[in-house]
Amino acid sequence: MMSFLVSFILIVLAFLGAPLFAIILAVAMIGFYIQGVDLSVIPIEIYRISDTSVLVALPLFTFAGYLLAESRTSDRVVRLSRVFLGWMPGGLAIVSFISCALFTAFTGASGITIVALGALLYPALIQDGYPENFSIGLVTTSGSLGLLFAPSLPLILYGIIAQQMTVGEGVSIEKLFLAGLLPGLLMIFILSIWSLWVNRRMPVQKKRFEIREAFSALKEAKWEIPLPVFVLGGVYGGFFAISEAAAVTALYVLVVEVLIYREISIKKLPEIMIESMVMVGGILLILGVSLASTNYLIDAEVPTRLFTFIQAHVTEKIVFLILLNILLLMLGAILDIFSALVIMVPLLLPVAVSYDINPIHLGIIFLANMQIGYFTPPVGMNLFIASYRFKKSIISLYRSTIPFMLLLLIAVLIITYWPGLSLMFVD
Amino acid sequence: MGLLLLMILLAVAQIFLRNFFGTGIVWADVLVRILVLWVGLVGAMAAGRKGDHIKIDLISKYLKSKLSWIVAAITDFFTTVVCAVVLFYSIKFIRFEYIDGTVAFGRIPVWFCQAIIPFSFLVMSLRYFVRTILNLKAYFNQKE
Lengths: 427, 144
Fold this sequence. Notes:
The complex is a heterodimer. Chain A is mainly alpha-helical. Helix content of chain A is about 75%, strand content about 0%. Chain A is built from 21 helices and no strands. In chain A, helix 6 (about 90-105) runs antiparallel to helix 10 (about 175-200). Chain B has helices at about 1-20, 25-50, 65-100, 110-115, 115-144; strands at about 105, 110. In chain B, helix 3 packs antiparallel against helix 5 (about 115-145). The radius of gyration of chain B is 20 Å and the shape is elongated. Classes of the chains: A mainly alpha, B mainly alpha. At the A-B interface, helix 1, helix 2, helix 3, helix 4 and helix 13 of A face helix 1, helix 2 and helix 3 of B.
């Protein structure tokens, strides 16, 4: 009875806007206290952050992403992809999907994509004759499209959390990156086909491919083109460890944007550093405190009990997967992706494994669902960002994103029920 | 500003890391991992300044200003207490480490690397306490 009351109070506090790290800490403290464990375990668990060497990737990639977002990289990405893909029918829509996915993979899906790329793509789409509803829906949806591609932070974080657990020891971040490749491409593919179909009657003046423009766009972006090549090539090809790739990326981006393009002044650098570190601090803190709460949950055998409970009601793997999808979609609309990972993965992973779901596949399912949560009414974060940025009412955004949401839902179902798609390249 | 310094250190550490496969500086790896902890907790302190910590923004957005202050005061006070408890136990934990005197790398003892934990929770606890007071003040001023 007592414990129900306490959990109820904590849940209410969480919904009233108490910082999630404090809620997680309170769970761990009360739990350990009841078990009679000295609460010194909590700082010990927080200190474990320094045990994980992959974690270096988190601040470094975040910093690099903030630098890219502050400079005019977005202009160059759009220009480049327009030159090379703009001549195709429905080219601009496809350009939008691909450049947004690339940009999000590097900057993290924190709404930056909508602000930086959407602001360029939306007027361009309108100008090319795409309907307004379609364009705004496309831009809002694309804001979270790159989550499954390297070096996306949520994917890295999933790997780190999974590695802390016995059932997920084999989950390397490299494998996750490989696993995300086809599901991510599937999403882009489905959206592209649909864009072509919807706008098939639209008299789009096809652009010719111009060699001169291609050269000048290439020349303008010549310092940034190597970045995805060596990060993606290096990581997917297995030449780099993630932390090495992160170190190289951060240093390279710093030199290129500050010293070569000179789009970020040295004076502005501390501000960007602080901004990005506030973000990292928020993520690392909930990660650290969740190490403590996870430890308590495992001590208290909560995952095992959860499994027995679910097992009693759900025997089929398929039914479990359906419930999983529903749960994750709902979570994605309420929680941000990092807290959702930190809170849910330790609970879900052991249960999912006992339903014979590969931990790597679970990671991809998890993120694919969360990605939709970004623009699920009523509270998807990207809806608010797009509404603010493009001065549209939230209601009109609900309407324009729904077709995209349904399509991605189909993609998520394919990803969920076809493990082979995710695990094709993972031995 | 300390944050900035740390980042520069981190950038240098990266280069060490890159040379790692060549020369192999044993303590650089440890240092980088501890720096991650430090940067994270310093970032967390900075996030506390603006009340920027990750939270569920579902209800607070729709509350009227009067009610929102009292709600914020409650959640801030809750956070203050939680941080204070962590502060207390991390000091206890570090005292043990201090007596043990284990060395992290070079001549730097482990307790020094861990010192950031009580420090950051002290700062966060104070910050959230101040926020609690400010919210209460706003609430009572509004009433009159």
